């Protein structure tokens, strides 16, 4: 019996190492395949897809802004993954973040709230010779101390822009609320107060409106709500917004691109922010937030559940559907007549592809709108770099300043009687 067993082992012995080598090779091949798929390494780099009307301004912008037509190259090893771009932005914001020195301003609101913004003076003269202020609205729950805001402000200051950055109501650490409400998806009150202050404090300044993510919705809604809000505004730039909260929340419940997981993480962050103001929200008179609402907040696992139990009540909406409908810029953005740059990324895991039909249709119909869609970049990532390490400045930082510089010089060239009105008289043409 032993002889037979030895014979069998001798017979299969040479094949066993080869079989194990084959299994190892297959395992390595599988891991490499997963890495290539997850990192999207086979995706080619490309220049942004730009949709626009063929007008003198659009032709000038494409000529003056090479970043809009030049190939955007993310870091080779991980930059083609929208998830990693988004995760890196979410974790650290930017690399080698500067610390610009600003002054915090406090603005009392009509309902007892206290809005705040930080003001950063330019670090030199603008190339156009004019006094220009960027009025900036950050993303959800963000403020002037976030790394991506600091990096963008520092870059803008060095190019001759004064910067005013809104701190979303309730977002600043160690800043107590003075009324029973926080920032919401589309409330423009605090942003309007900041802009009004800038216009009064600097009568000669012209404004560049900039919004990131949720901030993009707020600034576009603000400009479209009232034609007077566009006075002294040179242009508007919106980056990575979703345009319609109602449609966006429907896609947030889907699992493709791990969107449901992002929803869970964002909901967790919002819960922490709201609960940090729990005592104030429950203590102040006239609040319509009760203990039952807070109990539902604890159990919430999505932004929609938080909006239903808490956020919609700050402005008295009867339903979360009404809240999303009234707070979205989709019903106001077509009234914006100043030059408007809308920037999104195809691999943004937070903004579903179906939402991008809104800016594309807008840019096909309106001569002042340019829609720029990059192949890569994630949500507010847009990192650039050779192989592994990203550059301190992102494509997003540079393209906003490049576009606004071009607009400033375009306005400078226009006859005084045509400034800020040339777009309203242009007829749309095919582009």
From TrEMBL:
User: Could you tell me which residue ranges the AB hydrolase-1 domain spans?
Assistant: 133-386
What's one GO BP annotation on this UniProt entry?
medium-chain fatty acid catabolic process
In the Enzyme Commission scheme, what number(s) does this protein have? 3.1.1.23, 3.1.1.6, 3.1.1.79
EC class of this enzyme? Answer: hydrolase
Q: Where in the cell is it found?
A: Cell membrane
PANTHER family recorded: ABHYDROLASE DOMAIN-CONTAINING PROTEIN, MONOACYLGLYCEROL LIPASE ABHD2
Known role: Progesterone-dependent acylglycerol lipase that catalyzes hydrolysis of endocannabinoid arachidonoylglycerol (AG) from cell membrane. Acts as a progesterone receptor: progesterone-binding activates the acylglycerol lipase activity, mediating degradation of 1-arachidonoylglycerol (1AG) and 2-arachidonoylglycerol (2AG) to glycerol and arachidonic acid (AA). Also displays an ester hydrolase activity against acetyl ester, butanoate ester and hexadecanoate ester.
Give the family, as the similarity comment puts it.
Answer: Belongs to the AB hydrolase superfamily. AB hydrolase 4 family.
**Name used for this protein in its record:** Monoacylglycerol lipase ABHD2
- Tell me the organism: Xyrichtys novacula
């Amino acid at each position: 019996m032993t002889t037979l067993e030895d014979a069998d082992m001798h017979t299969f012995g040479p094949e066993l190492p080869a079989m194990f080598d084959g299994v190892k090779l297959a395992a390595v091949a599988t891991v490499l395949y997963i890495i290539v798929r997850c990192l999207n390494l086979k995706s080619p780099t490309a220049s942004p897809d730009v949709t626009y009307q063929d007008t003198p301004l659009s032709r000038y912008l494409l000529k003056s802004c090479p970043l809009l037509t030049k190939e955007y190259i993310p870091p080779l090893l991980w930059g083609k993954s929208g998830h990693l771009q988004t995760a890196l932005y979410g974790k650290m914001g930017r690399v080698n973040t500067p610390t610009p020195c600003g002054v915090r301003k406090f603005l009392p609101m009509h309902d007892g709230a206290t809005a705040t913004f930080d003001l950063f003076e330019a670090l030199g003269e603008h190339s156009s010779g004019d006094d220009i202020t960027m009025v900036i609205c950050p993303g959800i729950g963000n403020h002037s101390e976030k790394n991506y805001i600091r990096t963008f402000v520092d870059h803008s200051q060095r190019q001759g822009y004064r910067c005013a950055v809104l701190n979303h109501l309730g977002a600043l650490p160690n800043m107590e609320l003075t009324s029973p409400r926080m920032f919401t998806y589309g409330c423009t009150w605090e942003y309007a107060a900041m802009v009004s202050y800038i216009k009064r404090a600097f009568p000669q300044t012209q404004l560049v409106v900039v919004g990131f993510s949720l901030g993009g919705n707020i600034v576009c809604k603000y400009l479209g709500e009232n034609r007077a809000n566009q006075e002294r505004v040179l242009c508007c730039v919106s980056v990575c917004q979703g345009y319609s909260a109602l449609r966006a929340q429907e896609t947030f419940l889907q699992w493709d691109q791990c969107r449901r997981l992002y929803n869970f993480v964002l909901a967790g962050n919002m819960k922490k922010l709201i609960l940090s103001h729990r005592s104030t929200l429950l203590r102040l008179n006239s609040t319509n937030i009760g203990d039952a609402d807070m109990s539902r907040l604890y159990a919430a696992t999505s932004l929609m559940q938080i909006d239903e139990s808490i956020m919609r009540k700050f402005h008295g909406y009867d339903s979360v559907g009404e809240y999303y409908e009234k707070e979205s810029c989709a019903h106001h953005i077509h009234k914006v007549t100043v030059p408007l740059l809308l920037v999104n990324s195809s691999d943004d895991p937070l903004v579903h592809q179906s939402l991008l039909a809104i800016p594309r249709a807008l840019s096909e119909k309106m001569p002042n709108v340019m829609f720029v869609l990059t192949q890569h970049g994630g949500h507010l990532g847009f990192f650039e770099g050779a192989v592994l390490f990203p550059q301190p400045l992102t494509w997003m930082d540079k393209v906003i300043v490049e576009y606004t510089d071009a607009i400033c010089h375009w306005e400078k060239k226009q006859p005084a009687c045509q400034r800020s009105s040339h777009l309203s008289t242009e007829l749309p043409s095919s582009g």
